[in-house]
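Morning. Coffee machine broken again, so started the prediction first thing and wrote up yesterday's gels while waiting. Chain of 291 residues, entered below exactly as on the submission form.
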Amino acid sequence: MLNIFKTLHRRGFPRPAGSSILQRCHLATDSNANHAGTISIARHSPEERRLWLRITVPATFNHQPHLPSIPRQTKPETCLLNVSINDTLSELLTILREEYPDLGAPRFVEHPSNTPGGPSSPLSNGHTLGQLFRGKIHGSFQFPRGLALNLDEGQILASLRDIEARHRALEGAVTQMESTHAGIARSVERVILAIKWTGLAYISGQLGAIIFLTQQLGWDLMEPVSYLASLSGGIFSATIYVLMKRDPEYTNIGTWVRGILRKRISRRRGFDEKQYETIKAQAESLKGVIS
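Came back before lunch.
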């Protein structure tokens, strides 16, 4: 189901004379009324990868029928809907029906021309809002009781183009930084490989030295030396555990060493890895908003 967060702003309406309770603000329900509202993009939410739609309609008091001759006070009413560009027209119609229950079930009517009010025909509600916002289809959301919500196509296209321009700029920055980031990763792996071979050479050399000295000096002398060599390995593991605060396993040691090397090489090359990750996340979020 479409996840919609609705925020209504209604203020500044006078209390009708002779009424102790201010009635809910409704649109006029006269079937002959001709009210035109607009749908535009208020802002986007990169964290949620969604858009906030602003729906502005002319609002009036629907006063109690038994109160005679109370003039209607008209004021624009704003509703904010949180939607995804991949949501369908049917999902938006469901939300509009929930938001304005007194106006009947809305429907989307296609306008073959760009002029609202021209010849129209029913359209499949399976089309997405992205198709509608990018001008691949044209139309309005019409209620049975005299309200038509027309898209502010100029504002919507400008908003989408602004988001797309920001996304392209961020993608360009990420592309430029990725070459440096990849170079740092290669340097880190080269150092890690050198450490591995150095460690292997040390262990092999230690074993060869103990075997050779045992043949030359005898086991009675080399036995405590071999024990001390094993003890040094335990001391090394304990030191790594204290520094990493994790078990001295191969995977943990590799992750820890890689992190240290990455920070040092990045600082040496003037590369801000946190900024890179932030820009990359922003680019992915904006891509989720527009695609």
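The first strand starts at residue 7 and ends at 9. Going to sketch it on the whiteboard this afternoon.
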